[in-house]
Write a structure and sequence with these properties.
Length: 229
């Protein structure tokens, strides 16, 4: 009887081993992605400084995305139809990819200047002394809202065709067009390397908390920028 039981036990083990051969195991698909998603859902303690870092990171990503798309778009439109054509595209905050990213981050973004061409962009720039460095202002405006500011520096030769010196960088015909479009506008007389305006973002606390806990978030990379049109 004992011999029979041993035989039955060994047979069961043999069947178990044969059933678990590597070539017969069906692995869970997308296990790495599922693991990352599961980790993102873990409850984590988020400190105030974490939210400030998330604000800095999110602001850099959104504004850099917008600046890159603007540069590419203006280069294309200037080549196709000059200043008269390109002027209509100089609103990167309204671009589809930028708006989509702002929605993901639960942010509102605008460009402001103390001497704007478009009066709608008139705004007061936050003092740089409030930032951890002189290039960013990152702070908590209220319990639910974070603020981010980054200067927009004129570092592209193409920008001088609208914002440079009249008669030197801006052709007379182009200046006449700009004056007609924005009779009360300013925004000329700049040189390369000068701050032209600033990005200002207001980001919700829940958006920054979600952004900070997302280990799947990636830094902005210029070569991955989508085409606008």
């Amino acid at each position: 009887m004992k011999t029979l039981l041993y035989l039955i036990a060994w047979s069961a083990l043999a069947l178990g081993f044969s059933a678990c051969r590597p070539d017969q195991v069906e692995h869970l698909k997308d296990s790495k992605r599922i693991g990352i998603e599961a980790e993102n859902w873990e409850v984590k303690r988020i400190m105030p400084n974490d939210l400030l870092r998330a604000t800095r990171w999110a602001g850099d990503s959104l504004s850099a995305t917008a600046d890159t798309l603007l540069r590419r778009t203006l280069a294309r439109e200037l080549a196709a139809g000059g200043v008269a054509r390109a002027a209509a595209f100089c609103r990167p905050e309204t671009y589809g990819p930028v708006d989509s990213l702002a929605r993901v981050l639960k942010a509102t973004a605008r460009r402001v200047s103390e001497h704007p061409r478009n009066p709608a962009n008139k705004g007061t720039l936050a003092a740089a002394e409030m930032a951890a460095d002189t290039l960013r202002v990152v702070k908590r405006e209220s319990q639910e809202v974070f603020f981010y500011q980054r200067p927009i520096v004129l570092n592209n030769q193409l920008c001088l065709r609208c914002h440079g010196e009249v008669g030197k960088d801006i052709a007379a015909a182009d200046y006449a067009f700009l004056q007609k479009q924005f009779p009360q506008g300013q925004g000329t007389g700049y040189r390369l390397g000068q701050p032209l305006a600033a990005w200002q973002l207001r980001l919700r606390r829940d958006g920054m908390a979600e952004f900070w806990t997302m280990k799947t978030r990636k830094k902005w990379r210029e070569h991955k920028m989508p085409k606008l049109f």
